[in-house]
Amino acid sequence: MALILEGRQVAAGVKARLQEKVEALRQQGIQCGLAVVRVGDDPASRVYTNALVKLAGNIGLRADVRTLPGDMAEPGLLAVLGELNRDPGIHGILPMMPLPRHLDPDKVAETICPDKDVDSLHPLNVGLVAAGKSRWAPCTPRAVMTILDHYSIKLEGKKVAIVGRSNVVGKPLFQLMLARNATVTVCHSKTPDLVSVVRAADVVVAAVGRPEMIGAAMIKPGAVVVDVGINEVGGRLVGDVEFAAVEPVARAITPVPGGVGAVSNVMVMEAVLRHFAG
Ligand code: NAP
Question: At a CB cut-off of 8 Å and minimum separation 6, what does 31 contact?
Answer without folding.
Answer: 25, 62, 89
